[in-house]
Amino acid sequence: MDRIQQLMRGMPGGMGGGGSSDSPTPDCAEKVHVSSLALLKMLKHGRAGVPMEVMGLMLGQFVDDYTINCVDVFAMPQSGTSVSVEAVDPVFQTKMLDMLQQTGRGEMVVGWYHSHPGFGCWLSSTDINTQSSFEALNPRAVALVVDPIQSVKGKVVIDCFRLINPQLMMLGQEPRQTTSTIGHLNKPSIQALIHGLNRHYYSIVIDYRKNELEEQMLMNLNKRNWTHGLLVDKFEDHQKKNEEVVEKMLKLTKEYNKRVIADEGKSAEEILVENVGKIDPKKHLESGVNDLMSSNIIQCLGTMLDTVVF
């Protein structure tokens, strides 16, 4: 073991226990600040690509040793599947950065993001290889993963990662120095631990910078527009739905009639015990009538409005 430590100390960067005193060491107090604009663009890009994975680059700056500020993102053309994504056009990145420089967006690339539609936030082997290429250019580059399917109103499923030096793991050393509890605020998911969290990469805390107006903008991201009420179904499809609902209601009416005849002469407690675990045809009939009436009223009103307006 001593021989391995001596070899590690002799390597560039001093990865052994001694290390260079002035070399920067990753800290668990590090935090990534994501702007509302970047968060909104990542969510819209991820939703547009479902069920395929999408990726893009994060623009911002490294404020200090403890803060990474992401102010904007832009999408990248890539070849993606439902379980992996890989960038194929490095020339596009250079041209895009040049165009952003001309528009006054002079921030540098602080990392990359990609989506995991429906299966949580973690890094696959392909993602680890991509992240290693980014860290070869900048050791502080981060990989951000967002799940557009599990992200619902008021909750964004997102996480940020950076790779762990395998030489440190061989020596049994911690990948980051612990100076605060910030790096331990988020409880890791079992799925991420299975896929190598804290073995091949570690998580970094994400903070969102948004005011009340920006929060309202994010809440209205997938809200239905008022024009949605003017949409009219095809008359053939609407007729078919009505026939299906009426047939279902006919079956429920027969079942309800049998239930009423069978319950005659029984007490309320006996009826309650006998019907435990059984479908209540009365409730299903009420919901069927409400659905049938509302769909027909909306269809008629929509048709009338479309006829008058258009």
Strand content: 15-25%
Helix content: 40-55%
Largest sheet: 7 strands, mixed, barrel
Query: Which residues sit in consecutive blocks of at least 5 with pLDDT less than 50?
Result: 1-22
Which class of secondary structure composition applies to the elements?
Answer: alpha/beta
The largest beta-sheet arranges its strands as 1-3-2-6-7-8-9
Q: What overall geometry do the principal axes of the alpha carbons give?
A: elongated
Counted beta strands: 9
Chain-averaged pLDDT: 81
Number of helices: 10
The SSE order reads HEHEEEEHEHEEHHEHHHH
**What is the rounded distance between the termini?**
82 Å
Taking all Cα atoms into account, the compactness measure Rg is 29 Å
Structure description:
The protein has helices at 2-10, 36-49, 90-102, 125-137, 166-170, 190-194, 212-219, 235-262, 268-274, 281-309; strands at residues 31-35, 55-64, 67-75, 78-80, 85-87, 108-115, 142-146, 158-163, 201-209. It has 310 residues and is of the alpha/beta class. The strands form two sheets. A seven-stranded mixed β-barrel has the order 1-3-2-6-7-8-9. It has a two-stranded antiparallel sheet with strand order 4-5.
